[in-house]
From TrEMBL:
Start and end residues of each Glycosyl transferase family domain: 174-331
One example GO MF annotation: glycosyltransferase activity
InterPro entries: Glyco_trans_1, Glyco_trans_4-like_N
All residue ranges annotated as the Glycosyltransferase subfamily 4-like N-terminal domain in the record: 13-161
Keywords: Glycosyltransferase, Transferase
Protein's name according to its UniProt entry: Glycosyltransferase family 4 protein
Length: 354
């Protein structure tokens, strides 16, 4: 029995996507799995078309109260047998960890990076609440080690996020297109990617930058591209259905990742699975676990737009190097195929059950 608890399990977001992907993978292995949303998502989405696990909503109505959700969650736990409860964020741990019965081993996840936690209240939340859990799970070995040392946490380990699927086809990397993928929100800093592209593409008229995603930053980013003289070469694709995202990777040559903080960016892993190298800011252990600098892509110091521009320009000018790095990137991220990540979850369960 495995119970995943999320703040809003059916919202559009990376935590939710990962939760449903792992839940489906475990259900396919014969585990009885429940995914519980503690509150109602404002704009629910369906992450898995035909889920083999049970889905529950603890909130009673729109914006349902915390205490009511706690009572419904406690009632749900009364009906499940021995197993594991996966609490997917510090907020969830503080919300419902005290409700878990002894027959459920407690696992607390943190989907951000150590660097992001240190800069926010998350570090204090993890340090206060996670030592009492049976296991604290982070996204990379580097993150787990730093939490173990500095929190300190005696129960830290790491499990990566899984790729949703493994493509048969790979990009030829010959379409002159830089790709950015993610919600158009301030923390993603797509303005930096537009700036770097405008500089790198100054003498490369065929190249375009395509941004896949939607969000409140769209007007500002359009204005930024216009101010840099590349309005006609920066294409805002909007939201692309999950089933069609593969075409975006197949028809691009380089992925750019310029966010202020990233946990384990699935866009980098997905691009690599299509044989596409990334240029990324080295903002976290998760990014560093996905991109081996100079071998599977290029890492640059966080926030250094000049270094990012130089790295992007070099890859745009060198198709042979793009293919070499892209092929190595695909081999590297095979470790994050969903079946391998589910293997790691089952190994964790086995250790906790001993």
């Amino acid at each position: 029995m495995v119970v995943f608890a999320c703040e809003d399990a059916d919202a559009l977001g990376g935590v939710q996507l990962v939760t449903h992907t792992v839940a489906q993978g475990l259900a396919l292995r014969g585990h009885q799995v429940h995914v519980v949303g503690l509150r109602r998502a404002r704009a629910p989405v369906r992450h898995i078309e035909r889920p083999l696990y049970e889905r529950h909503l603890a909130a009673g109505g729109p914006g349902g109260g915390r205490q009511a959700a706690r009572r419904r969650f406690a009632r749900l736990l009364g009906d499940v047998g021995p197993g594991f409860a996966v609490l997917t964020s510090p907020a969830v741990v503080s919300w419902v960890a005290d409700l878990l019965p002894p027959r459920l081993r407690s696992i607390g996840q943190y989907h951000g990076s150590f660097e992001h936690a240190r800069a926010t209240r998350h570090f204090a939340q993890v340090r206060r609440a996670y030592p009492a859990l049976d296991q604290a799970v982070f996204l990379s070995g580097d993150d787990a080690w730093r939490f173990a040392e500095e929190a300190p946490l005696p129960n830290a380990t790491h499990l990566p996020n899984p790729l949703r699927a493994w493509p048969d086809a790979t990009s030829y990397l010959d379409v002159p297109r830089v790709l950015g993928v993610g919600r158009l929100v301030p923390v993603r800093r797509f303005d930096r990617l537009i700036t770097a592209f405008a500089r790198a593409a100054r003498n490369r008229a065929a190249w375009e930058l395509h941004l896949v995603g939607q969000g409140p930053e769209l007007p500002r980013l359009r204005a930024h591209a216009a101010a840099l003289g590349v309005a006609g070469r920066v294409v805002f694709r909007g939201a692309v259905p999950a089933a069609e995202v593969g075409r975006e990777y197949l028809n691009a040559a380089v992925l750019g990742m310029t966010g202020e903080h990233e946990g384990f960016p699935l866009a980098v892993a997905e691009a690599a699975s299509y044989g596409m190298p990334a240029v990324a800011f080295a903002v976290s252990g998760g990014v560093r676990s996905l991109v081996a600098d100079g071998s599977t892509g290029v890492l640059v110091p966080p926030g250094d737009v000049e270094a990012f521009t130089a790295a992007l320009s070099a890859l745009m000018a060198d198709p042979a190097r793009r293919r070499r790095l892209g092929a190595a990137a695909r081999r590297h991220v095979a470790a994050f195929r969903v079946e391998k990540v589910v293997d790691a979850w089952e190994e964790l369960f086995a250790r906790l059950a001993r």
